[in-house]
Predict the 3D structure of the following.
Amino acid sequence: KATVSVLNWLLSHLHLSTMALGHGLALLLCAAACAAAPPNLVLLVLDDIGWADVGFHGSDFPTPHIDKRVAEGVELQRMYVMPQCSPTRSAIMTGRHAWTLGMQHFTTLMPGSTASLPTDAPTLAEALRPLGYTTHAIGKWHLGNTEWANTPTGRGFDSYLGYLQGQTDYYNRTLGSCGLKQACLYRSNCDDFEHGVCVKPTASPYGPNAAAADWWNGQEAALAHLGNYTVDEYSAEFKRVVTGKAATQKPFFVYFAMQLLHIPIQVPPEARYLDACRGVTGGYPTNNRTQLCSMAARLDAAFVEIDSILADAGEWENTLIWVVTDNGGMTAWKDTWPASASSNYPLRGGKTTLYEGGVRAVSFLYGGWEGLPAGARGARRTELTHAVDIHPTLLHLASEGLAGDAFSGENIWGTITGAAPTERTELPLNIATNKDLTASGIPNPFVANASHANYTALISWPWKVVVGEAYMNLGVELQPRGGWWSVANYTYEAAPPVSKGGVQLFDLSADESEHRDVAAAHPDVVARLMDRVAYWLSEDAGYRHPQTNIPTPRGNPKYHHWTWAPRAL
């Protein structure tokens, strides 16, 4: 009765009708309890996409569907990543720099290695699942698989379909453990040596070169569809995840680690993709740009499949898609493995190098979710952003702004929308010392200048310093990786000699292609940036030595039914 009296008093004194009051109360209640549902999040991590492997950057690869999505979304033109796969993926997954995780290996994670994401660094899946998201991983992992606890379903993902190592065959889902006159990870998998080189690798049930299968559904080897192009299965798995939302009524997070364009270069089975690339030439017989182009055309079609799956399930308007490549494209620096045929032009170098072609990534956001404002769409943001920003930004969107602060990166949603662009001026790109730059990951304190920085780069806008080697030795190079590969005819331009001082300085605002080393003209700038390098190498900045990264005997796939399974299998 008291409540009714109060309402009557309000109506008589404020001249409100019962209908108006009810409408107002409904609005208030909805504002408090009917907030918009958090978006579905799809993080599409592409593999080894060169800056000039997409049409919107001037490529001769046919990528019209990708180009259209960039035009309808937001491009991050200065998104930086690490020069290799595992380091970048660890940064994306945790929001922390790879050298604070011990995951900065220039060799990436070796098959059979014990290195993996530290458990004190939560993954995106581990952060999003408590917020009500279902979590799913598709494609490449390459973040450790010593035990099942180090694989996707052990690090917060509800489901996983894909491969655990750094590469796999697009048709047979295999990776050799001992190559003919090439790297032999396990000498016991070779039947004959000559002068210390394997000349007769063991033949496994999955083929020559001691091949081992690497294709998993959760924690089960999924070998029923060997022979089908892997990309088709990724799309089928994505459809399963998206349509499954009808049963869970929960938003989904999909870490979609697309295999394309990583080696091996293998054309899709449909002739139309290769036919679309007949006018694209360059490279070598085993790693040529025509065949790589056909894979880019298949990637372009995958975007249509992804969007159609979302639309058919009624989820397009609820989904944000963030696309980023893990590093620059691998160029044709030699005529065999592990080279490829990407172009990063006009940027210098490519994958494995600290030049812009190796660490500046293709990245954009799009989707039907209205939280990406119409006024932001079509924009090209030029602020400094990094792979470590992805985790805190997605967490911010999923948790209504509560992103936390235990990250190397920052929430850049204000940069993406243009509402509050980042004021960042400094980005460390890679941090290392001579003693830590070993293939095994085991520090070598006896190397010359053991504590000196090497294979290190840092941006303090507009300056970029490269300390020591810009890329590590990977064997004989027919065309040194520090040059430029054009788009037209895929011609090579050699780089000038590096200064003897071991430090290169570039003004990116005037020379983004890094043709002019101006270190000698700006010793004060070099000194200031070297002080910052020293900081990033310190314990105060969280620097860790790399984890041990060598194939262990228990990791030999012949002990696991010729599969690249965790050692516990």
